Amino acid sequence: MNTMLFTYALEVAESGSITHAAENLYMAQPNLSKAIKELEDQLGYQIFERSSKGMFPTKEGAEFLTYAKSVLSQIEKIKSLSAKKRSNVELFDVSIPRGSYIAQAFTDFVSQVNMDRGIDFNMQETNSVKTITTVADGTFHLGIIRYQVFHEKYFTDYIRNRKLDMESLWKFKLYLTFSKDHPLAKEDKIKQKMLTPYLEIVHGDNAVPYLNVEYMNNAGEDTQRKRIYVYERYNQFDLLETITSSYMWASPIPKKILEKHNLVQRSCVGVELVYRDAIIYPQGYQLSLLDKRFIECVLDEQKRVAEIKFR
């Protein structure tokens, strides 16, 4: 029996619906429905009752889900045995948003680590929902999430339901980011309507718990918009530098990165996009020395970018 199906069933139970579970698992809804049906056929009983209000475990399903969670936990323990055998190799893993100051902090952190013994670094840049998922399932032990303060309740509820702890790093505004050669670069004041003719670069996998992808894609719908959706942080810098009529909204970026790519950051009159960065980890998890050193590097870099003054 494919234990990945156990993971799917547990996500459906956690989310309460196929739609939300499919979004969290980055699957097409029909494929997830088919997988759950396949699992039920193998078991010989229904795991979920379907209704207009969502999906709820049957009596047999609730018992199965308890065992499934235990099985997956045991598999993780088996996997950890190989790590224990490599006792001379340390492991540091973290899942982070596509934030330049955080990536710079990771670089600073790695450069400071004592390399006299073996060590593996595992760093993933992704959206906050995936970070929450991978920290909750044990793929990563530490994560940094980023979300708009407007959506804070969705994230805090989701984190609590996933049995994770969260510590806020800071709250900040997004700034317009574009080439020094952009037509707006020399404007004293930039208003939102002045952005209409220009190409916006956005992260293509933006996600908020409990809100479907269609809602996110249509939020603030503008029929005049022109966008490029990107999934890699360095792609965005190449585009901003090369396509001088493009722009994006970004957190404060370290000066040396702006200078390297010939970019500037500016305020936009009347626009307040307030975000929060926060550290997450499983409840009861004890931060390692490497975890603490990484967090110190993040806080140091955060203080540096917070001191930058924007026009």
UniProtKB/TrEMBL annotation:
Q: Which GO terms describe its cellular component?
A: cytosol
Upper lineage ranks? Bacteria, Bacillati, Bacillota, Erysipelotrichia, Erysipelotrichales
Please indicate if the UniProt record lists Acetylation as a keyword: no
The molecular function terms of the Gene Ontology recorded here are: DNA binding; DNA-binding transcription factor activity
List the protein's name: DNA-binding transcriptional LysR family regulator
The record lists the organism as Breznakia blatticola
Q: Which residues form the HTH lysR-type domain?
A: 1-58
Q: Which CDD domains match?
A: PBP2_LTTR_substrate
Q: Which UniProt keywords apply?
A: DNA-binding, Transcription, Transcription regulation
